[in-house]
Amino acid sequence: QVQLVESGGGVVQAGGSLRLSCAATGRTASLLEMGWFRQAPGKEREFVATIRWRGATKSYANSVKGRFTIARDDAKNTMYLQINSLKPEDTAVYSCAARTVVGGAFSVWGQGTQVTVSS
């Protein structure tokens, strides 16, 4: 089993930056893909970005393209989300998730980290 722990959230002014981290432990050899999702108050959880654990394939939601960058450090089994030019509408709980089964869904989730952007 894989466990995920996020860190790096906080309160930041609009236009600022944050870097979120997601450390994976346990059976990390089973990782196929990891991603970031977010849920704003009163809204459904939405996709932010994903990265394949083997290879360089990345994908982003249109709303974050050009401002968010997803990356990974294989040696540390850690995924990152660099968030620049933050907007108040980026305020949400950001969660990382992992997919470990070919063709499966993101089934392993972290506890989430709060990002609050003040205007």
What does this structure look like?
The radius of gyration is 14 Å and the shape is globular. The chain contains no helices and eleven strands. The relative contact order is 0.32. With 119 residues, it is mainly β. It has strands spanning 2-7, 10-13, 18-26, 33-39, 46-52, 58-60, 68-73, 78-83, 92-99, 108-109, 113-118. The strands form two sheets. Strands 2, 4, 5, 6, 9, 10 and 11 form a seven-stranded mixed beta sheet that branches. It has a four-stranded antiparallel beta sheet with strand order 1-3-8-7, with no helix packed on it. A hairpin with a 4-residue loop joins β7 (68-73) and β8.
Task: Give a short summary of the structure.
The protein has 119 residues and is mainly beta. The protein contains no helices and eleven strands.
